[in-house]
Each structure stands twice: as structure tokens, then as C-alpha cells.
Amino acid sequence: MQRLLSGSARLLPLGLRCEQAVSSGIVKAPSNFTTRGYAAVATDSSDRQHGWQLGAAAAVALATAGLGSWLLLDPQTSHCEEVQLASAGQTKKRKAPLPEIHAEDVAAHNNKERGVWVTYKDGVYDVTDFLEMHPGGASRLMLAAGGAIDPFWAMYQQHNQEEIKSLLEGYRIGSLVGGQDMSQQVADPYSNEPKRHPALVVRSQKPFNAETPAELLTGKLYTPNDLFYVRNHLPVPAVDPAAYTLRVEGEGLRTIELSLKDLRTKFKRHTISATLQCAGNRRTEMSSLKDIKGTVWAAGAIGNAEWSGVNLKDVLEYAGLDERSEAEAEHVQFEGLDSDMEGVCYGASIPIEEAVYKGADVLLAYEMNGRPLSKDHGFPVRVIAPGIVGARNVKWLSRIITSKEESQSHWQQHDYKSFSPNTDYDNVDWESAPAIQEPNVTSAICEPENNTAVSTSEGTIPVKGFAYSGGGHSVIRVDVSADHGKTWTVAELSSVPAKRSRAWSWTLWQAEVPMPKEHTGSIELICKATDNAYNTQPDSVAGVWNLRGVLNNAWHRVKLQVQEE
Amino acid sequence: MQRLLSGSARLLPLGLRCEQAVSSGIVKAPSNFTTRGYAAVATDSSDRQHGWQLGAAAAVALATAGLGSWLLLDPQTSHCEEVQLASAGQTKKRKAPLPEIHAEDVAAHNNKERGVWVTYKDGVYDVTDFLEMHPGGASRLMLAAGGAIDPFWAMYQQHNQEEIKSLLEGYRIGSLVGGQDMSQQVADPYSNEPKRHPALVVRSQKPFNAETPAELLTGKLYTPNDLFYVRNHLPVPAVDPAAYTLRVEGEGLRTIELSLKDLRTKFKRHTISATLQCAGNRRTEMSSLKDIKGTVWAAGAIGNAEWSGVNLKDVLEYAGLDERSEAEAEHVQFEGLDSDMEGVCYGASIPIEEAVYKGADVLLAYEMNGRPLSKDHGFPVRVIAPGIVGARNVKWLSRIITSKEESQSHWQQHDYKSFSPNTDYDNVDWESAPAIQEPNVTSAICEPENNTAVSTSEGTIPVKGFAYSGGGHSVIRVDVSADHGKTWTVAELSSVPAKRSRAWSWTLWQAEVPMPKEHTGSIELICKATDNAYNTQPDSVAGVWNLRGVLNNAWHRVKLQVQEE
């Protein structure tokens, strides 16, 4: 029943660590085995094919999933290796009927010494050996030890994939007595989600992630609130504005609590224009090169708005920030009211100089384009750290902490970082890269869309798009080419650049690009932007590919179909 | 005698404006003539071939040089066009013996109404029609009107090329009576030049421009003073330290004058490490793609030093800078003691926020690596604006001016800017691009050198280089590839990144890159750096090529020769 994988191999969603799998002896690799460049494939008892890339990780997945015999395929050479399992115990176990297990027995297996058991629906699973391979960390999985994982999977819906369920089945040791279910009826964490505009392109429902259709981006400088991309990491929290308080504390500050009324009356109101962009915007171009774990964004996870609120610096000074405390604190941490099942809230931080230098434009915003923040955009108060990547613009803000260290949250420490194209989950050192703050210079073609038909009778092709650079850098030029970069047309920019180091808003642009004389039935449009530090976009995605698929700022390309006339 | 140019066409050194040439009627172009993509060629009376790119500019050059018949060659299609001269008067004139002219007659032709004549050695030239085509501007050429251009050419030695002399000959109307020479014996403006270290790679003697050999760059974090690259725009001025005064004035300031002793005693001494890089560093890679006017730099127009002096902010505050005047002034201008024949000094400016934000690290430096500044590096005082391109770090500092406008100097307004690859001297709008301030992220391989032999018996290739990014951005990663970017090795960085927004020094790096299994007799090493804004270098030079050849930060490539063993 062994078959080679047809088509492209799929990435193992949980990103198991290959070297660990080999060194732990779960997999005994051939002597010339490396952890790179392999795809694995097997066929399960229902004759369904399963395939993964990532070398030995695939072996682990297939072995632990009890899928029986399997192969490793080197996609470069098409050479096929049979790899021996050091222990095929679990596979053998499957042959005997699985026992029924009492819920009390499961509950007693809640530690590493006795073993860590969990249930999913009526299945019982011994995940002791999987703990250290859990991509979310052993400690998070331990929260379910001795109980049901169902509510956790309701929260983290990325588990709801066939591959994950299949992986779990490999750890099955029995069924609950009488087919019972240990999962208590927990309130749906997603009960507070608002209605969304149907034009948004939904990339994930829970948590809600959706982008603006490209052709709606370039209509006006300010993206309408209802069409602005949404990137939630957790369920939208229910907030009672009357009871809302913002706690401010930390290095060099006295601890204070501010109500919404305090924020509106004790501090001067400021308004700035600023672009927000998800670090994963344009990830899909990276995924098409090599699979990536993460929300599949096209180019619409970006938007620009006019934000009103109070100045973070004013609030920090109200709480006692002065030159001495500025020197003590190096970061400003933010916590949101959105939290997971363990009560761990979303968190991020920015360097304190962003709050106190460069015009000190970081806002605690309560309005977006002249209207109160909507639920999806952080009602009642969110951070707007202009020039900084979206992930640090914490929504539903509950707490501000000045500190010597940056936020220790998962999203600051183990996500939203980029690495070399050769770094993957089996060799990544998260501490080796800084948390993304100001994003790199980027641009994208919004019109025409991919695969639009153009006629050779047209002398020029009208092209529209956006361009943006982080850190207050203004975009000074956008070049567009229809002949693979042989010639470039300089686009007309929509806006006069803002003050040199405080260009927080994107630039919309348009160009009339000469129809190339030579083509092969299709034309590729390319755009690239240059900012006022004369940084520009790299030519190809391959050089900036990274395991998280973040900050893809390669030249943006759109293919058009040519109709001869 | 018409011949097509063999080999690559050469750029017209003076960058004449094609459209102007066509529109002024000097050249009558074919109806389908465009000012792009043409090369021109002609053969002179000595049977030497002359060729230029740049469309009609070439026509002008050849016509005015009196070279007789000529052709335009489209290098794309190899199609050849014969272009008619609207006026071939000068060519005809050559046939009659040229008259002898009195110096008094030359002196009387010093305005556009009567005509603008100049002399060079014993030749007399009517340059009236050339005035508007002079790349340095008509006004600069007018300074020589009615007199000798010899001393100007002694100052601006870029004129001393065969093409320029040939161009001038086309304007010849006679010879001075008795072969006399109008050029007065002027003092050699380059009489104060210091001795230089013989290891420097000299790119121009007058003004002196020289770079550090690549293999000497990566030896230590601080480049030795004597080996530090030198980029002079004008002769080195003679400065008497006892008589030296620095004038400080402008928006919101009282005018003050400070002696060297004042600087050393009235202000606190500060020391910073900072990298300086010429905007033209790595120009040679751009020139090899398409000719460029400018000093031919390899990758050694960069260096790093420890600079000591006083804080610019302290001096500005001493002269009365406060929050109100900060708001009024937007730029800080600097003037050097180096000046041209008209007394116009070198000048540049930086945005005032560079002087007052980001730790306010801009120095008026009097020491370099613990020793007084040398003559070549700005004795007695120079600006060190860390994170800012070399050209704004004015040497031999004489004057500081706070102002609403940036410096109006040639080097701020009409040089040290970059444009789209399709922008050339015939369509450039200098105002459309900002003056370079913080340079983009870059890196280069210093060892091994180009064409080094490597043996296949080696498992890895040791590679060393530098990486740097402007604006206080730290380099967070350098990737090196020996297989055209299929795989990358992450280099080891020499230094821990400095405080987030104040990384003023370069990073040295080294990597052991696996010897690729496949090669074609040679291997291309590639490096690329990424900074903490996750900006990275573009893949190819073509996309960043610009008419001034500045800020080339494409992936750096070094070719190695493989010896099979």
C-alpha cells in the first residue's frame, strides 16, 4: 500500500522537529539521511494518501499516526528511501482492540511521571511523548492533561484539520467507558463576534482574519472602517465602556487607572493618519514557493485610516514619566482584553523611544476615521503605533507597562520574526532575530487584477496600487515595468510626502505603462517602491522567504492575459 | 569613413541633454527618433573611432567636435540611422585656416550678447552655444568667459579626458596671436595636499579620492586612519588651528564664533563609533552594466572609526536653540573651508531632527580613533552625522546654519540623489528626489577576492565581509550563498547590535560556506544583509541602477575559479 506522493507535498502543520525525531530514536534514519529536502508519504487503511515535507518530521508523524509502512521521497532526485522505525509499538497496539478507560483514570494521568493523557470526543490519548513536540509548547498542552482537549481546539481552531486529527489518532490508547465525553459544555469563546461586511475576504473565521479586496484599497487615501482588514488572534472580547479602565504602571511610573472619561477629558485629543499592515501581508506569494504555516494573505492585509485619541507620551508623563524614568525603561508593553482559555491575554511591546521621539505620535486611539472604534478594531481603545507593524498596535487595550524588557508574550517572542530562507522549524532559534517593529518598504499592484485580459490595441496599461514603508519613512518613488524590468515607468504618487521622519501613511499611486511589443501570450506587471532611505524591494521572493512567511516585500507581480487585436 | 562602433558604446562624459540638442535644432533627428537606446559612432580624421550612448547627445558631441559624418546605432536592433546636421557650419569652418585672435578680442567676448569666448592653451573657442549644455551649469562656465579655462580645469580635473578635449575642439574659432596663453600663473590649488598611505587605491588624484583595499576592511572593527577611504570634492584647505573659528548662526540662534579652544573647553567631550560610507560605494558594479559619470569605486569607500568631539546639540543650545527655535528650523547646514575658484565652499545639510533626536549623537569631531583629525579627514573639525551618508559629514567645518531650507549647494541639490533606472541626464528632474541622508542596507564580500582560486577538496569556503545600514539601523543577519541563492549560510556577526535606533557602526561578519557540488568551473559567492527594519538588499543591480551610480546595494557577488582536485 506504499505510494509516492503525487503533486506537491504538504507541510506538516504542527512543524515537528526533525532532528529531535531522529535523535530521540523514534525514527532510525538511513546513514546518509539529512533533515532537509525530503517528502514523506504513506497510505492509510482507508487508502487515503498522506504526505508531508520536512524530513524526519514526516516520519514521526506517520509513525505516530500508526499509518504503517511509509517512504521518504527526495523531491530533488525522486530517489525513494525506506526508513525503519525503531519502535513500531503503537502500530502493533492498533491490532488489538482498544480498551475502555474510565474518566477517573484519565484524570489521574495529568503529569509526566504517570503519563499525560487527554481525551477528544470519546477517544483517550497518551500524549506524553508528544509534549515536547507540541508547536505551541509543552506547557500549553499540559493545561489539558487529564482532561478534554475539545475546548482548547474550539479556541485554537487551527487544530481542526485532518492531519492533526490523524496525528492524534496515533496516540490513541482507548475509548472512554460507554462512549462518554469529558468535555464540559463551555461557553463559546466566539459568542461576542460582530457582524462583518460581506465584501471582506475571510481567511479564518475563528479567530477572525479577513482582508480588503485589492481593488477596494486604492479608491481613497483612507480605507473605510467596514472594509479595513481584520487580524484577530483570539475571540473579540465583550467590553462594557462604563466599566472600562486602563491600567498604567511600570519602571519609573506610579500606577494609575484611567476610565474612558479620563482619557477623553484629562488629555489633549490628537489625530494622525497612519497605515496598519499585518506582518503576514503578501504571505501567499511565499507559500506558493514553499508551504508556510500561517494565515494565507494576499496583498489586502493593509489599510490606512485617520486615528484620534490621546498621546501615549502624555499618558506616560501623567503617570510620572520623566527623563530619569525614560532612561530606566526601554520598552512599553501593551496588553489587550482578548485572552485565551488560560486567561493569557494578547500582548506586545514597542521600544520606548517610539513613544517619546519622532514627534511622539503613538496614540491610544478611540476613534477611526471619525467614528468610535468598532468591535473588530479594538473598541473602546487601541494602540496606534504609527510606522510599526500591525501586531504591536494592541486592540482592546487594558494595560500599559513600562519595562526594561520587551513583552514576553508568544507573539513578541515566538512569532512575528523573520529568518534566513534556510531556517526552518527544525533549526530556528527564536532569540536570534528581533521582534518585528518597523516593517520594510513594500508596494503592490491592486489594479489590474491577476489574469485580467488586455488588448494589444491599447497603447498603455493603467496600473494602480499602494506603497508603504515603516518607521516614518516616506515612499519617494514607485517604478512599474511590463517587460521584466528592462524598462520602468515612474508612477504618479497620490500624496506629498509627510515630514521626513513622520510619514506614517501609505502612498497610493498610478501609472500608464507602455504595452510591451514582445510578449508570449501573457504580460507580467512588476512594481517596486523606494523609500527616503533609498531602501527598495528585493527582486524575488526566494531571497526573503522565511518560515513564518512575514514581511514579504519582493517585487509585486501580476500576470495579464494578452488578447491580440 | 563611417564605421559602426565595435564593442560597447561609451557614455558621453559631459552628459549632454539629448532632447535639448534635438529641440534646439543642432541635430535634426529622423521622425521616429527617440532619445533612448541609441549609440553613436564616428571616425575622426586620424581614423580613431568615437562612440557614445545617450541618443542625440552623441550627435551633438560628434557634430560639435567637428568629426564630420556620423551614424546613430540602435544597440537593441543593430539598426543604423543616418542623422542630418541642421548646421554643419563649424565643420566647414575647419576647412579654412583658423584665424589668429588677440587676447583683447577674447576678453571682450564675455557675455551672451557678443558671444562667450574662452581660451585653452593657445586655442580660442566660442562656447556660446554650449553654455546651456554645460553639465556644471552655464553660470560656472560663464566664470571663464573672456578668459582662460586652464585654471578651472586644473581645479576640476574631470575635464582632463580626451572626449572633453575633443568636444572643446569642435568650438574652436582660432588661435591666440603668436601662440600666447591667457592663463595667468595661478597658485596650484592642490599645493596643500598631504602625503597619503601607498596602500590606498587611488581613484582620482585631484581632487583626491581613494578607497581602502577590500581585504584591509575586515581586519578590525575600526579602520586605521591612514587606510580610511578619502572622498574630497575640492583641494584640501590649509588651516591654521590657532586662527580657526567656527561660526554658528541661523533660525532661532544668536550668531556666535567658537575657537578650537572654545570647542574643547566649553563643551563636554563625547565619543561615538560610527561608519562613514560614500554614496558612490560599489558604483563600479553599476558602471559595468551601463556607463556612469562618477568616481569608480569598488566596495572600499567605507570605513568605521571612533570619533571624539562635541555634541552638535550642545553647541546649538549654547547658541540659543530651544524648543521654539527647533520648531522654526528644519535643517542644519554645514559649510567647509574647502572651496572652488569662485570661493564657493563645499556644503551640505541634515534634517534638524537628526541633531536633536535619536540620542542627539551628531558630533563636531576633532579626533578620529584617538588622534587629531588628519588633513584628509577634515582637520581641525568635521561633522560626524552617524547613520547619514558620507557627503553630509562636512570636513574642515567653518560654519553651521540652522534654517528652514536645506543646503542649496550643488552637492545637496544636484548630486547625491538617486532616480529610477530609466531616468537619465536627458530627463532627470533633480527636484523630484530627496537628497540622500540615511543610506540603505548594504553588505559586501571582502575575502576572498574576485577570481581567487578554490579547490574542490575544500569542504567549505571561508568568507568575510562587512554589512551596514543607515539611520541607526542595526544589521541583524547576513546570508551567504555559493549556489546562486538556492541555499544560504547565516554568517557570524562580529558585534552585538547597539541600542535599537542608534546602531551607527557597521558589522563585520564571517561564514564557512559549503562548497557547492555543482559548478561550471567557477563559483559565484553572494552576500546580502538584513537590518532591524527587515529591509534587505535587492537581488540585482539593474533594478537600482541610477544615473549617478549611488547607493548600489544589490546582492554583492564575487566570482571564484574552481580547481578540481
Instruction: Give the total of beta strands of chain A.
Output: 33
Roughly how many Å apart are the termini of chain A? 54 Å
The chain-level mean pLDDT of chain A equals: 83
- Briefly, what CATH class of the largest domain in chain A? Alpha Beta
Shape of chain A: globular
Oligomeric state of the chains present here: homodimer
Strand order of the largest sheet of chain A: 7-11-10-9-8
Secondary structure elements and pairings:
2 copies of one chain form a homodimer.
Chain A: H1 18-23, E1 27-28, E2 39-43, E3 49-53, H2 56-64, E4 71-74, E5 79-82, E6 84-85, H3 89-93, E7 100-101, H4 103-108, E8 110-111, E9 115-120, E10 123-126, H5 138-142, H6 150-155, H7 162-169, E11 172-176, E12 201-204, E13 209-211, H8 214-217, E14 230-231, E15 245-250, E16 256-259, H9 260-266, E17 269-277, H10 283-287, E18 302-311, H11 312-318, H12 323-328, E19 331-339, E20 345-351, H13 352-356, E21 363-368, E22 371-372, E23 382-384, E24 397-403, H14 410-413, E25 442-447, E26 453-455, E27 460-468, E28 475-481, E29 489-490, E30 492-493, E31 507-514, E32 522-531, E33 556-563
Parallel strand pairs in A: 7-11, 15-24, 26-33
Antiparallel strand pairs in A: 1-6, 2-3, 2-4, 4-5, 8-9, 9-10, 10-11, 12-13, 13-14, 15-16, 17-18, 18-21, 19-20, 19-24, 21-22, 21-23, 25-27, 27-31, 28-29, 28-32, 30-31, 32-33
